[in-house]
Specification:
Blueprint lengths: L6 H6 L6 E5 L3 H9 L4 E4 L3 H4 L11 H14 L4 E5 L9 H13 L5 E3 L7 H9 L4 E6 L5 H4 L9 H17 L3 E5 L3 H10 L4 E4 L7 E4 L1 H4 L17 H18 L11
This protein binds 3-methyl-2-oxobutanoic acid.
3-methyl-2-oxobutanoic acid binds next to loops.
Length: 266
């Protein structure tokens, strides 16, 4: 396996091989994702929902994201670590966007940042890239805009929305993004966007024709039995395994079976 995944490796992969990205929010998960040969680890702001129990991603801030990014970066020896810029860390001004993006590299030890939005955020992306910070774009369903989008719903279903998304992808490429996440977009439109840009597209709920795929690690591992969108494939059912193990522990303690001599000091 190659030593360290770089931004250039990601860009060069387009048309050559499929890319993989998974979220991680802590040292231990990052360790396993890194060991499994996944190209990119995203410290997603989905952290707000799957780890902290918020109903959306709006209330998480820079301090929490930096705290988790540091932990993930410590374990990632090979994968490219991308930190998700939280809501209102880049929207208000170009200066704030550049300063906060810089903190993810300086304090979080990430290799790149991701931020949501198309043409409307290109000025910020250009300035962040000019500061030497690689940026991954994110269009389609952008969870930080759910109040505007009217909820978590598939994007680009009508012709005008579809055209706007193609324009957004081109604008992100032009602004200097090294890749773009396409979230909750119909398969054919995601394929069209993928062939309209020369940087890789990483799909989530965007069908098989993207240049790579990303999933939230809790969804992949079956650690979230409260919500399972259509695009999620559970590669394990760890939620059930955890519940079973904890129940066995409780029962054994209650019956006086644990700890036995094997698990006690003489
Ligand atoms: O926050 C996140 O996990 C994401 C992925 C869904 C791409 O943005």
């Amino acid at each position: 396996m190659k030593d360290k995944v770089t931004i250039l490796d990601i860009i060069k992969a387009k048309g050559q091989r499929k890319l993989t990205m998974l979220t991680a929010y802590d040292f231990n998960t990052s360790y396993y994702v890194d060991q499994s040969g996944v190209d990119m680890i995203l410290v997603g702001d989905s952290l707000a929902m799957v780890v902290l129990g918020h109903e959306d991603t709006l209330s998480i801030g820079m301090e929490e994201m930096l705290h988790h990014t540091r932990a993930v970066s410590r374990a990632a020896k090979r994968a490219l670590v991308i930190a998700d810029m939280p809501f209102m860390s880049y929207q208000a001004s170009v200066e704030e966007a550049v300063r906060n993006a810089g903190l993810f590299l300086k304090k979080g030890r990430a290799h790149a940042v991701k931020l949501e939005g198309g043409s409307k955020v290109v000025a910020k992306i250009r300035s962040i890239v000019d500061a030497g910070i690689p940026v991954q774009g994110h269009i389609g369903l952008t969870p930080q805009s759910i109040r505007q989008l009217g909820g978590f719903r598939v994007q680009g279903k009508d012709i005008n929305q579809a055209k706007a998304l193609i324009q957004d992808a081109k604008a992100l490429e032009e602004a200097g993004c090294f890749s773009i996440v396409l979230e909750a977009i119909p398969t054919d439109l995601a394929a069209q966007i993928t062939s309209s840009v020369s940087i890789p597209t990483i799909g989530i709920g965007a069908g098989p024709h993207c240049d790579g795929q990303v999933l939230v690690i809790h969804d992949l591992l079956g650690l979230n039995d409260r919500f399972k969108p259509k695009f999620v494939k559970q590669y394990a059912q760890l939620g059930g395994t955890i519940r079973e193990a904890i129940t066995r522990f409780r029962e054994e303690v209650e019956k006086g079976e644990f700890p036995d001599t094997e698990h006690s000091y003489s």
